[in-house]
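FAQ: What does a multi-protein file look like?

Like this. Sequence, then tokens, then the next protein.
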Amino acid sequence: MTKTLAGKRAVITGSNSGIGLGVAEALAAAGAEVVLNSFTDRPEDHALAKDLGERHGVVARYITADMSKGADCRALIEKAGGCDILVNNAGIQFVAPVDEFPVEKWDAILAINLTSAFHTTAAALPGMKAKGWGRIVNLASAHGLTASPYKSAYVAAKHGVVGLSKTVALEVAGQGITCNAICPGYVLTPLVEAQIPDQMKAHKMDRETVIREVMLLRQPSRQFATVEQVGGTAVYLCSPAADQVTGTTISIDGGWTAL
């Protein structure tokens, strides 16, 4: 891959696995210095960054920060030394009816999935404005554009991420900074992969049938999106081809939101 992002520093929240790690891989392959993040501080987290950097020939670091805490979110950007590219990916999920939804779960989901993006963006923007260049890529969801029952906090947060993306885009329009939201449907991550055996058992179906008829029921393609596809979209949004793409959403959902 051409090193189109050489000289750029990217901070990706929630990036020691799954979509976040896939985006970090893609940005590193394009030449960007990358900062991985999660709330843990284990030797394997730092080793992950070291391996990624060595494989792609870029500087790669791991910085621990709890995305449920505003001060940690802002400190992440400061410890990184600022960033040219900010990818807000950190997120958690919980499922329950609204009248049974635990208040602490609601608060945690809103804090990690939405409020963290406000804090990191607010911290990153001054540096981007000073350079006259910046890319903010927010990982929303198909649930940022539509809804499902029992996911009130997640749907509310992801709708908020889409709204925040539009607002930031308008505020920085004409300053060389763009802000967009990627809205994936179901992506085959280790977390999703781990759910398949339980779904097979619960529905008494084989792997292919439970994926097609249960897990991907609302995804018309009946295929998972991949972390590589999400990563490639993030790289596109950071490329010159996307200089005028801002304040919008890009769906990677196999047609889910076309229904």
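And here is the next protein:
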Amino acid sequence: MRFENLSNLLAHLESDVSLFAPEQLRQRIEVLDELDAHFGDDVLIAPMPPSTDATVFARAVSLRKRLAAANAAIYSAIRKDIQQGNADGLRDWVDLCRQASDASAPGLGYDHLDDLIAGVLQIPDPVEVIRPGHEQVFYQPTPVRHVLAMIEQSGLSEDDVLVDFGSGLGQLCIVASILSGARAIGVEIEHAYTESARECVRKLRLSRIEFLQANAREADLSEGTVFHVYTPFTGSILRTVLDRLRHESTKRPIKVCTLGPCTDTVAREPWLRTNMRPDSDRITVFCS
């Protein structure tokens, strides 16, 4: 973008007083993304891009600080509510952000709902992550819109125990438990991810979530009623886990929620049924 247009863009944003109203959270997230696109991934720490006017860059840094501070105040208030056992604030902000998004959009991309949850949870970065082993898939968090779809389509409630295979940094378990009241158990083989997830739970004072550092082929599944599988593994590992879930289904009714390539494999399981068209780009809920 030419310098004149960047300057005009900043002038427009700087003069928009409504942008700093609390309810404009989503709009601020979008503006922050736009600033990052023009001035670097994070203008607060990135060096000034070549050929960018120093004055314009300084204005962008100042504006980004103000926008980030406005959002941080909201995230802090939501966190305090959660620490006191009140999830209404998070529910309200999720609903507000969803009104302007396509909650049913397929695919694995992220949107402003993910920015909201990341700002609230503030999960610490993991340390010394080991490269995934054979048949294991590199971790990426489930997009929040799909987490919300999983909660709603599975009918997840406080009477359920959600088990998330390959729970990673724990976002799905934490969000699902806060919003639905369900107990949640994350099964994750990577120690660094598990420690980060546990630290987040400790800071938020959540008592109905636990993270097991365990191999999914061996983890205790005896309490689960709803199982989430975002293709954390393939091949023989997936086969073993599905056989274990089939065994659990002989003891009680269970649901299996899938996302990603594993959906096609799960859809072929004769002991599972669904009233949805299996779609790897969306949550599919299977019942035993």
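Q: Is there any per-entry metadata?
A: Some entries carry free-text notes. For the entry above: Strands lie at 161-165, 183-188, 209-213, 226-229, 255-258, 284-287.
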